[in-house]
Amino acid sequence: MDLKLTRVLISDQADPSCKSILEENGIKVDVKTGLSKEELKKAVTEYDGLIVRSATKVTADVINTPGCILRIIGRAGTGVDNIDLDAATNQGIIVMNTPGGNTISAVELTCFMMGCMARSIPKADASMKAGRWDRKLFMGTELMGKTLFIVGLGKIGREVAIRMQSFGMRTIGYDPIIPAEAAAKFGVEVLSWDEMLATADYMTLHTPLLPETRNLINEENISKCKPGIKILNCARGGIIDEDALYRGLVSGHVSGAALDVYDVEPPKNEALFKHENVIATPHLGASTKEAQKRVAREIAEQFVDVVKGRPLVGVVNAPSLVHASSKHLVPYVSLAKKLGVVLASISKDKALEMKLEGETANKYKSLLVSSVLFGILMARGIKDVNMVNAECRAKENKIALTITSCEQSSDKISLAARDITLTGVPCHATDIITNIDGIDCNVSMGRCTLVVEAYTSRIDLLQELSSKMGEKIENINFVKGRVFVGIQGEIQQEHLNSEKIGKFHLITY
Ligand SMILES: NC(=O)C1=CN([C@@H]2O[C@H](COP(=O)(O)OP(=O)(O)OC[C@H]3O[C@@H](n4cnc5c(N)ncnc54)[C@H](O)[C@@H]3O)[C@@H](O)[C@H]2O)C=CC1
Ligand SMILES: O=C(O)C(=O)COP(=O)(O)O
């Protein structure tokens, strides 16, 4: 994907290395934190790149601001729930994060919070500072032999498991995509959900905030927990129903909670975070020097990769794009896009078929589907389309693409409408249509391709073309009443005499 960035705005606190890496690579950068929504809406009409952490809320109305020129949003961190991904995708904006850059910091905070709960360290410290020596008040419990229920066994969940096992804890856990055998490899047992709630002494949450995880820990699940459960949330506010948690703390059914994240930040729910059995931190999971340096550097380098056309990492909303710039796939992407352009220039059909043959074409199916749709939509004059939003725009424009695959044969891409079928072979030198409607041919898709419909006189046509284009003509193919002319270099529509050659399509890529 060809993306030029002129100005990037960093709108949250980020390590200075983020700005300096971008600037060293010729990208202009401003840092403006604490923007109001109105200021952010204005900013997206002035900056084509935006880098945020969790404080900036990149909502749909920000993204859909008239005149928004954003092309890429970078999250210097993990969670992207502060960015409206659907709105960004629809507008063709790439969203990237830096998965893993702050994992260990969030893991360590979770483990320390557990220790603090077990031994009442914050309370004991406050009591000392208040001039007391309350040795009897702060009787703790050991972690050794206790059971920890980990909800979400991704990067953070599994690292928490490994560390807490070294304290002698039994670790049990649930993750819809991690089978029991995989969890067993990092020492986590999988029991039934209700069994885990009833068994755990501690429960720690490490899922993203998704519609399925919102209020996952609610009144019902809390009531199923073993009395005295201690609950930690260093993942996202909103995964716990805060009112239900508060009621559990007041009744004593929940004996402690450690919270780093809140439904609304800064939190409004004072009664909860001021409760005597709650340890609260202001979203500090990623706030270490190491994590901040890492995520700042990573997001800046990812932006530079985009500008330099290198393979992408960390793309959240267009996974197929990750490979778009890989050298070996460039011919496939280019061929798919150009077949889309040619087909849509000739045919108005909206129900299309794409056949992918060969191992590589099938392995990168979603990338090639985006490429072909991009070509089709461009040729049909759809505005603001790119590889990120091609599928959304195709749906909006009621273009249906059916995909068939055949892995065994050699690499080939075919695109068919009711009135024409085009096939091409990915080739590093130039993009070529090798077959049209079952007839072998050799039509180059270099700068321009001319397609003449229902020609009446071959002689007239050839005379007209050679007088206008001469050596620019690369190849001429006569296929079932149409003529396909591959042209090297530019040629203007007005230079062709339609009276002489009849209806034609002059296709540029
Ligand atoms: N407090 C802080 O400052 C930080 C918070 N985080 C947050 O921590 C959370 C976890 O981050 P990572 O481990 O890096 O993410 P990850 O993507 O590696 O792991 C998340 C796991 O949750 C699982 N999951 C999804 N739905 C689930 C459900 N209904 N029940 C159980 N598991 C479910 C996924 O399958 C995945 O394996 C995220 O919400 C992230 O935003 C991350 C870094 C710092
Ligand atoms: O990376 C994450 O998911 C975090 O929650 C860290 O948030 P922050 O970058 O500290 O605002």
Automatic annotation (TrEMBL):
Top enzyme class: oxidoreductase
Catalytic reaction(s) noted: (2R)-3-phosphoglycerate + NAD(+) = 3-phosphooxypyruvate + NADH + H(+)
Domain D-isomer specific 2-hydroxyacid dehydrogenase NAD-binding: residue ranges: 113-285
Chain ranges of the D-isomer specific 2-hydroxyacid dehydrogenase catalytic domain: 8-317
Keyword Glycoprotein: no
Alphabetical list of InterPro entries matching this protein: ASB_dom_sf, D-isomer_2_OHA_DH_cat_dom, D-isomer_DH_NAD-bd, NAD(P)-bd_dom_sf, PGDH, PGDH_ASB_dom
Pfam families, per database record: 2-Hacid_dh, 2-Hacid_dh_C, PGDH_inter
GO BP term, pick one: L-serine biosynthetic process
EC numbers: 1.1.1.95
Record-linked SUPFAM superfamilies: Formate/glycerate dehydrogenase catalytic domain-like, NAD(P)-binding Rossmann-fold domains, Serine metabolism enzymes domain
Protease found in the keyword field: no
Pathway: Amino-acid biosynthesis; L-serine biosynthesis; L-serine from 3-phospho-D-glycerate: step 1/3
Keyword set, alphabetical order: Acetylation, Amino-acid biosynthesis, NAD, Oxidoreductase, Phosphoprotein, Serine biosynthesis
Signal peptide: none
Domain (D-3-phosphoglycerate dehydrogenase ASB): residue spans on this chain: 329-410
Molecular function terms from GO: NAD binding; phosphoglycerate dehydrogenase activity
Homology family: Belongs to the D-isomer specific 2-hydroxyacid dehydrogenase family.
Subunit annotation: Homotetramer.
Name of the protein described by the UniProt record: D-3-phosphoglycerate dehydrogenase
Species this protein is from: Oopsacas minuta
